[in-house]
Amino acid sequence: MGEERAKIALVLLAFFLFSLIVIGLLWLSSGEHPLTLALAYAAGLSMIFLPCTLPLAFVIVPLSSGKGYKKGFLMALLFGLGLSITLTAYGVVVALLGDYLGLDNFTRAMFFAAGIFAYLFGLSQLNLFKLHLPDLPLPSFINEQRDYAKAFLMGLLLGNAGVGCPNPAFYVMLLYIATTGSVVEGGALGFIHGVGRATPLIFLSILAILGVNATSWLVEKRKAVERFTGWALLVVGVFIFAIGLFGMYWWEKSVFHTAWNEVAASLSPYLGETEKAAQTFNIEANPSTVEKYFPLAPWLVMLVLLLMPLLWERCKK
Questions:
Q1: Which of 74, 86, 94, 285 could bridge 248 with an S-S bond, Cβ 3.0-4.6 Å?
Q2: Torsion-angle region of residue 33: left (phi > 0), alpha (psi -120 to 50) or beta?
Q3: DSSP one-letter string for 228-296
Q4: pLDDT (tens digit, 9 = 90+) per residue, 161-215?
Q5: Which residues are CB-contacts of 289 (< 8 A; sequence separation ≥ 6)?
Q6: pTM of this prediction?
Q7: How far apart are CA 89 and CA 294, in angstroms?
Q8: Rounded CA gap, 301 and 284, in Å?
C-alpha cells in the first residue's frame, strides 16, 4: 500500500513539475523581463536545452532509476540540492568579485573532478572497480546509504555545468549580481536559479522511476539496468572529464554542439547560446595547447577511456 501511495504522489508531482516547466519557459520566451527570482528560476529551467547542461540528465536519471519510488526520488532530490548549493556559491563569488573573470578555470577543475568521479562510479556499477566513498559531512540519514551521498556529491560537482555557456537569461542574472555586489541577493538568486535547473532533471528522473518501477521487468532485468547505468555514467564521465582537461573549445566547435544549439535558438532566442551573452563577461573558448597540434585529442581520449572498461570486462570473463 505504501508503494502505491508513493507512486500516486510521484505521478501528481510529475504533473506539477511539468506544468511549472511549460509555464516558466513560455513566460521566459515571451520577451525581456526585469530580474526577479521568477526570472532566475525560469533561466534555470531554460538551461536544460543547452548542449553543455542536458548531459546532466544522463547522470541523474540512470542513478535514480531502479532504486524504488522513495529512494529514487530522494536521490534525484539530493542531486538537485547539491547542484543548487554550487550555484549559490557562484552567486556569492560573483557578488564578491564583481566579475566572472577567473571562474572559468574553477569550472574546468570542477568538471575534471566530476568526470573522474562519474567514471569511477560507472566502473563500480559494472563491478570492475570497488569504490569506497569516504564519510561525508552530511546528515546521518544520508551517510547511512552511500547511494544518497553519491547523488549529492555528483550534484555538487556538476552544479557548475553550463556556467561557461553563454545563455542570455543566465548572464542577465550574473551581470545584475556583479553590479549590485550583494552577497545575500547573489546567493538567493543563485540558489533559485539552481532549483530551476534541477526541476527538469527531477521531472525526467520521476518519469524514469515510474517507467522502470511500474513493471515486473525490473526484477527480471535488474542486471541489464545496472549495466546500462554503469555505461551511461562512463559516457558522461569521459565527456565532462575531457571538458575539464581540454576546455570547451572542441565541444563548442563540434557539429553536435552547433546543431543542438541551433535547434534551441530556433525555439526561442532566450534558450540558446548567443555571441552577445558571451561578450557580456568576455567569455571566449580557445583551443588548448594540445588541440593546436592534435585537434582530435579530446575525442581520442574519450575513445580510449571507453575502450578500457570494455576490454577489462572481456578479460574478466
A1: 285
A2: beta
A3: HHHHHHHHHHHHHHHHHHH-SHHHHTSHHHHHHHHHHHHH-TTTS--HHHHHHTT------HHHHH-TT
A4: 666 565 667 777 877 887 787 889 989 999 999 999 899 889 988 888 887 654 4
A5: none
A6: 0.75
A7: 36
A8: 23
